[in-house]
Amino acid sequence: MKAQPTASHFIDGAYVEDTAGAAIDVIYPATGAVIARLHEATPALIDRALSSATRAQAAWAATRPVDRARILRRAADMIRDRGEELAQLETLDTGKPIQETRFADWPSGADALEYFAGLAPTVTGETIPLGSDFVYTLREPLGVCVGIGAWNYPSQIACWKSAPALALGNAMVFKPSEVTPLGALKLAEIYIEAGLPAGLFNVLQGRGTVGGALVTDGRVAKVSLTGSVPTGRKVYAAAAGGMRHVTMELGGKSPLIIFDDASLEDAVGAAMMANFYSAGQVCSNGTRVFVQKGIKDAFLSRLKARSEVMVLGDPQDDTTQMGPLVSDAQLTKVMGYIDTAKAEGARLITGGGRAALNTGYYVQPTVFADVTDDMTIAREEVFGPVMAVLDFDTEAEAVTRANATEFGLAAGVFTADLTRAHRVIGQLQAGTCWINAYNLTPVEAPFGGMKASGVGRENGHAAVQHYTQIKSVYVGMGPVDSPY
After folding, report:
1. Which of helix, strand or coil describes residue 59?
2. Which ranges of 344-433 does DSSP label H, i.e. alpha helix?
3. What whole-number distance in Å separates Cα of residue 188 and Cα of residue 72?
4. What is the pLDDT of residues 26-35, one digit of tens each?
5. DSSP assigned state of 381
6. Sheet arrangement for strand 468-475
7. CB neighbours of 388 closer than 8 A, spacing ≥ 6?
8. What is the pLDDT of residues 63-114, one digit of tens each?
9. Which of 159, 283, 296, 381 is catalytic?
10. Distance CA 186, CA 7 (A)
11. What is the pLDDT at residue 152?
């Protein structure tokens, strides 16, 4: 139990335990060892968390934005100061290589806290002149928000959701994924140490039943979910019953279009980042790689060569470039997709099996070529290190095929012709797009999807709209003109 936390939950400024809740074993994906045992939140704890959030939020909303900002800024500094400790915990929780967790996960979370700390004091209303009368608007917090996290970026997601919520005067009850529950508890600790009043950020562990209880509670004003499309549909429907605000950041089957004038090395590197980073467990991954036929053979040759020298191994080793999948269940799912791709006639370029390691849920970086649009790996989200390479002739063909999906989270274009790049991006049905880059998600930029990939946006100034509401106030400056 090398990662056992003080207790399973964090409520009203302190750790709380109730072993009456069902057990949750936390598994280190590199070995399969149990590193912590937590318990699901009971109904009494759910009520306690929501009650404390409701109480604390009223006073927090009345706090000056600059004072709220100072607390978030201190928390961001603490995250950076404790970077190595937090990265090690994230690696144990997720199985990601330490070279990733040191530079991507918690650092991105700290950036979010810092960004929204700076933004909060600038959020103001407007004055609308109407002759002698006028209207002014106020941006007010929503109230108690529920955040539901995913297992692939657990600590980053906790920060991405809580930072705008807290900066803008809300409270948040956060439920991490039961697969990766540890980082959110550390974030709650840091917030309290930074001076956040008790009750404003509570963490409850649990599976879908706990999430369902939170989403449908009458005290909740907003739900923010990061997860799969099927889960998103259920949560969206449940939240709609109470007319709650929602942000849904869901899955994708994103296209990465590579034209034959693109830099080959850059395109190959981006395709690998868009499929193998975090062992392919990234919602925005460009898993449908459309390569123009003129460079297809050269692209596949370089892709094979570079993929086969990737270092798989112990995530705590500085030299490891790719770690295991997060769980045995995810391993079974991904291997099923690989077997299906082989059966449906996709041509295996490299990988295609479990990595030759003694323990853990490792899958080789896998590339399939000659993939057609109707194959399963071209239609469904695999969420593992499995790349589908499809070839195309013309720009119009690439755009049409790229859009032929229910998803719309992300898209990328590689080309030396920037006029074409902007033209193609303008036609792609995706909420987050890149030109000659991929999977860079600075907190300053809004992030989210279209179609089945979600509603609302995380990050950037756009997040203000999803954690506040506008109140309009009409001010009459003269006698009332009444016909009665």
Report:
1. helix
2. 376-379, 395-402, 418-427
3. 12
4. 999 999 999 9
5. -
6. 127-130, 133-141, 468-475
7. 287, 288, 289, 341, 346, 368, 371, 375, 377, 378
8. 999 999 999 999 999 999 999 999 999 999 999 999 999 999 999 999 999 9
9. 283
10. 11
11. 97
Between CA 255 and CA 430 the distance in angstroms is: 9
Q: Which phi and psi angles does 451 have, rounded to 5°?
A: 50, -135
Note whether 243 and 266 are within 8 A (CB): no
Do 75 and 191 form a contact (C-beta atoms < 8 A)?
yes
- Angle formed at CA 172 by CA 167 and CA 173, multiple of 5 degrees: 160
Catalytic residue flag (residue 249): yes
Picking from 453, 443, 423, 452, the residue whose alpha carbon sits closest to that of residue 435 is 423
Which one of 40, 90, 381, 458 is the catalytic residue?
458
**DSSP annotation of 457:** -
* Sole residue written with tokens 């082989």: 342
Asked if 159 is an active-site residue, the reply is no
Count CB atoms within 10 A of the CB of residue 191.
Answer: 25
Written as one string, the DSSP assignment of 18-41 is -TTSPEEEEEETTTTEEEEEEEPP
Q: How many CB atoms lie within 10 A of CB 228?
A: 15
Please pick, among 90, 96, 145, 161, the residue that the annotation labels catalytic. Answer: 161
251 Cβ partners below 8 Å, 6+ apart?
227, 228, 229, 283, 381, 383, 407, 409, 452, 453
Q: Which of 249, 296, 395, 451 is catalytic?
A: 249
Q: 């959110």: which residue's tokens?
A: 184
Cα 373 from Cα 361, distance rounded (Å): 29
Cα distances from 443 to residues 33, 39, 105, 413, 459, in angstroms, run 34, 33, 12, 21, 5
Q: How far apart are the first and last CA of the chain?
A: 76
